[in-house]
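Input record (one chain):
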Amino acid sequence: MTLAYRFATNFFFLLFKIFFRFKIDGIEKVPRKGGVIVVSNHISHLDPLVIGAAIRKRQSTFMAKRGLFKIPLVGTFVKTFSFPVDRDTPQPSTIKEAVRRLKRGELIVMFPEGGRSRDGSLLDAKRGTGLIAALSGAKVVPAYIGGTDTALPAGAKLIRLSKIRIIFGNPIEISSYGGGSESGKAFQERIGNDIMEEIKSLKLKVKSYENNSS
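The corresponding structure, as predicted from the sequence alone:
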């Protein structure tokens, strides 16, 4: 882990703790070493920062949309912890790069919906997540983020103070699937659908916690 990354994640962890009452559940379910894919819902520009702050014991690599790399200053920052992807049509080179990094033991963060949900509802998974998981065989850890859509909703320019919570679920073992008689595409889609079902289950847990604490 680079010194700059350690500083940034610890800084945002403290920031979220102080101003957003940051709550992390299930962090022990994220393996401390080996190739891992962390998959999460995506409702705000704050989400990557939240995940990085939560998994601050490991350096995370993000698959970020290519347009971010072209923004002055922002692009320079993004390059330090991510690599570009075309969300609608991921290139074979991008898939190969993700698989290579996973087999090398890196932790990669992906948003399987492909982009931010503007109303907080969960969207269908894009095929790329299932494809990378199937080719790499890496463990997949689902996560659900709540509250960032209130703190910085899509289209907003100012941040509001609100409680932010992230919960991690049990790792999904891709090796336990087996290819069966499914085609490659069907197999990858099943992985993507299962991932979104796990995220949906985590969302229900978060809503339950909120109702019990209110």
